Amino acid sequence: MKLLKLVLRNSFRHRLRTSLTILGLALAVVAFGLIQTFIAAWYSQAAAAAPDRLVTRHAASIVFTLPLSYKEQLLKIDGVEQVTYGNWFGGVYVDPQNFFPQFAIDATTYFEIYPEFIVEPDQYEAFLGERRAALVGRALADRFGWKVGDMITLIGTIYPGDWDFVIRGIYTGKEEITDEGTFYFHWEYVDEAMKQQMPGRAGQIGWFVLQIDNPDRAAAISTAVDERFSNSWAETLTETEEAFTLSFIQFAAAIIAGLRVVSVLIVGVILLVLANTMVMTARERISEYAFMKTLGFRSYHLIGLILGESFFISFVGGIVGIGLLALVARLVAAALSNYLYGFAVPQSTYFHALAVAFVVGLAAAIFPIQRAIRIRIVEGLRVVD
Amino acid sequence: MPEPIVQVENVSKSYYRDSLEIPVLHDISLEIPRAEFLALMGPSGSGKTTLLNLLAGIDQPTSGHLLVAGKDIASLSDGDLAKWRSENIGMVFQFYNLMPVLTAYENVELPLLLTKLSRKERRKHVETALSIVGLADRMKHYPRQLSGGQEQRVAIARAVVSDPTLVLADEPTGDLDRKSTDEIMSMLSRLNSEFGKTIIMVTHDPRAAKAAHIVRHLDKGELS
Amino acid sequence: MIPVSYTVRNIINHKITSALTILGVSLVVFVFAAVLMMSTGLRETLVATGSDDNAIVIRQASLTEVQSIIPRDQADIVKTSPEIAVATDGLPLFTKEIYVLITLLNRHDGDKANVVVRGVSDKSLELRPNATLVEGRMWREGTSEIIAGKSIAERFAGCGLGETVRFGARDWTVVGILDAGGSGFDSELWGDIDQMMDAFRRPVYSSLTFRLADPSSFVALRDRIEDDPRLPLEVKREKEYYADQSRSTAGFVSILGTVVSIVFACAAIVGAMITMFAAVANRTREIGTLRALGFSRLSILNAFLLEAMLIALAGGILGIAAAATLSFVRISMTNWDTFSELAFNFQLTPGIVLRAILFAVVMGFIGGVLPAVRASMKRIVDSLRAV
Questions:
Q1: Are strands B166-170 and B198-202 parallel, antiparallel or unpaired?
Q2: pLDDT tens-digit series, residues C137-155
Q3: What is the distance between the alpha carbons of residues C200 and C198, in angstroms, rounded to a whole number?
Q4: Which CATH number fits domain B4-223: 3.40.50.300, 3.30.70.100, 3.90.1170.50, 3.30.420.40?
Q5: Does the beta carbon of A336 lie under 8 angstroms from any beta carbon of chain C?
Q6: What ipTM score was computed for the predicted complex, to two decimals?
Q7: Is some CB atom of chain C closer than 8 A to the CB atom of A80?
Q8: Interface contact flag, C20 A272, Cβ < 8 Å
Q9: Chain C 154-173, CB below 8 Å of chain A: which residues?
C-alpha cells in the first residue's frame, strides 16, 4: 500500500502517546493472558487424566467410604484389568494453612496404575518395606524443605491423633502437568490403627481406581460396575478419571466464571485505551484529512490511513504484550510452583490475544473513520485549533 | 522628567539552539516614564516580543538589569516572579488567550483569584473592568460566542482588572480588522489618558502605533 | 487557586475522551468492588449463621463438622453440663446433629454440587433464632421427611416443596421450606437425626449445639470440657465457629481479586495518562497564559492533578454504581472450608464504597502526576508561542 509510509510516520508523530497506548495494551494483554493461563492451569489436572482409568466412589458423595471387599468383585468385571484404591487423609501439617493433599493408598498397586509418577527404584523399595513410609512429590518436598529420611508428623482431622511418617522417597512427574504436590503413604498404616481404635471404620476406602483394557468401553464398564453394586447399602458411582477430577475442580467454578467475566472486561479496557488514542488523533488531524481530500485522496484512502494506524498500534501492543506475558508467566509459574501445577501459557492464549488485537484495532477505528468520511473540505480546513 | 517606571540597562538576550548561540537583543538600554504609552515597532525577528517578555518577567535576560518600579526583576526567583507578575503586570496577547471554558466574567476574574480580595470585592472589580471595555452585557458569554474584537476587549479588561503597574500588549490588533483595531486602540489610549496606565505595546501596524506617545524601533536586536 | 470550574468544564468539553477514560476507570473499580462485595457477602453470611449465645462442640482438631465424629457416650456427658439453658418443655436446649455431604444435581444446568444434609432434633429450630419454617410443615418423627433451606429448594432438583430427592438409598419428601434469613442454614437440608443416622449407617454424631443460660459462663464450660480426659472435644462459640469457615474462601477471593484489580488498574492508569498528556498538549497556550497572569507552577500542577483525579472519581462513582446493582444478585458457590455449597449475596458496605473510591482517586493521581508535572515545567515563552 502506497500510504504505508504515512501510516508509520503518523503512528510515531506523538511518540509518547503511541508508546503509552502500546504499553497500556500490552499490560492489558498480560492481564488477559495471565487469567487465561490461570484457568488452564486450574483445569490441567483434569487434562492430565488418563482415558483408561475409571474412578469408583460412593454414590452419595465422596465423604462416604466403600468397603475394601468390593475390590475382588471389581476385578471380576469384564474389562477391568487392575484395581487400586486410596483414601483422603486430611491431616494438618503444623498449621491448617499448610494445606496439601494426603492420600492413604495401596502401595503395591497404586504406582502400577499411575506410571506418570517416577520414583527411583531403591527409594520405592524402601517405601514399600516400611509401614510409616511416605512418598512425596518433588514440589511438595521443596515447599517444606523435606529430604529423604525426614520425620513428619500430621495431625489427623478425620482420623484422630498424631501420625508420624518417614519420608522414604520423592517422586517426580513424567509430564509437565503431572502433579508433584501430593503426600502418599500406606493405607494399611491408617487401617491398623482403626482396627484397634474404631473397628467400625476399618476396612474402608475412599475410592477405587480401575485400569481398563479399552478407553472406548469406559461408559459400558462404568455402568456395569454401578449395576453390580446397586441396591447394596453402599451404592457406587463410577466415572472417568477426568470427570472425577473435574468434580473436585468444580468447587472453584464460581471464581473461574468470575475470572472469565473479568477477562472480557479487560478486552473492554484495551478497547477504551486504543479508542481514546484514535479519537484524539482523529480530532487533531481533521484539517489534514480535509487537505488530503482537496488533493484528490478519496474516503477509502483515509479509511486505510486510520485503520492502518489503529491496527499498527493494536498489533504492536498485542505482540509486546504476548512477549511480556511469556516472561511474566514464567515468573508466576516459579512463584506458584508449590501450589499450582502446569502454569504454562496455552498456545490458544496467544491466538486469543492476537484476535483481541485485531478486533480492538478494528473497533477503535470506527468512530474516527466516521468523522473523517463525514468532514466536508471547507469545514475541515476551517478548524485551526 | 519624572522618575522612570521602567529602566532597561544594558540588557542582552541570546537563545541557544543546540550549541549555537542566536543573539536576539544586543545591549539595550531604555527608560520609560510613568503613565507613558510606548509603541515598540520593528520587523519580525527584531526581538521586540522578546523585550516585552523580559519586561513581563516571563523570560530572563542573558545579561543586564531590568528595573520595574525600582525593583530588579532579573534577580527574582521563579516563585517570586510569578507573584510579582500577578501584582504588577497586565498582558494582552495577539490571539487574546482567553480560557475557552470560562465565561467573559470568569476570564476577567482570573487574576483576582491570586489576590486576597473577597468574592464580593472581586465582583465589583470585574464589573468595573468589563464596563470600561463596554462589555458589561456580555459577562456570561463564552469566548466562542464573542467576536474577535470583543474577545480582545475582554482580554484588556483582564489585563487591567488587578490595577497593574504595567500593561503590556503584544500585537493586540494583529488578528483584527480595521474597525476593531480602532476600537482597541482608542480603548488603550483611554486607559492611558484617563486612568494613567503605563502601556508598552509591540506592533508592526503603523495605524496602531499612531495612538502611542512614543514610538521606538527595534532592528536586529538594537534599539534606534 | 485556578478555579475548579476551569477543570470541570475542561473535562465536560472533551466529552468523548473523558467518557472513554471514565469508563476505563469504572471497569476496574467495578471489578475491585465486586470482589470485595463477594468476600464480604460470604463472610457476613457465615457470621450471621452462628448465634452469640450458642456453643458448638466438635471433635478435637477436626476443624469443621464434616470431619467431626462424636460417640453417643461423649454426647451424653456434655448434655449434663449445668451451663446449658432450659427449653420451654423443661429439657436442656441442646441438640445432637449429624452433618453429611451429598452430591445433588442443579435443577437448571444439571451440574453436581455438594449439599449439606443435617440430621436434627426437635430443639434444632429453637436453637437457631434466625431460621423459621416459612412454607409447609416440620418433618414428622420416624418418617423420611425433610425440610429444605430456601436456597437449596430453588437450586437443586427434587428439593422443592412436595418434591422427592434420593440419597442414602432412600427417597425423601420435602415437606417444608426453611428461611434462615440469608444465613448458611438456607443452604442445608434438615431431617430427623435418627432417620439420617440409619440411612447413612452412621452411629456417631457430628456436632453438639446448645444455648448457654448465661453467655459469660462459656469460658468455664469450655475449659472444663476440653480438660476432661474422657472428652477429646473442642468447644467454640457458634458465631466464631461459622465465621472461621469463611476464612479460606473469602481470603482467596480477596487476594486473587486484588491482584487482578491491580494489574487491570495499570492499563486504566495508562489510559488516564494518555488523556492527561493530550489535555496538557492541547492547552499549552492556556498554561502559558495562566503562568503569565501570575499563577505559580504549583497551581498549574494542582489544576491538572485535580482534573485527573476528578475524571477518576467520576469513574469510581460509576463503577461503584454498577457494582451496587450486584447487591441484588445471589450466588452460590462451594465454600472450601466445608466443601459444601453456600448461597450468599454480594454485599456492599460503606467501607467498600470508601475503598473503591479511594482506589479510583489513587489511579487518577498516578495517571495524572506525570502529565501535571510536565504542564508545570513548561517554559512560559514557549507555551505562549504554541498553537
A1: parallel
A2: 999 999 999 999 999 999 9
A3: 6
A4: 3.40.50.300
A5: no
A6: 0.88
A7: no
A8: yes
A9: 167-169
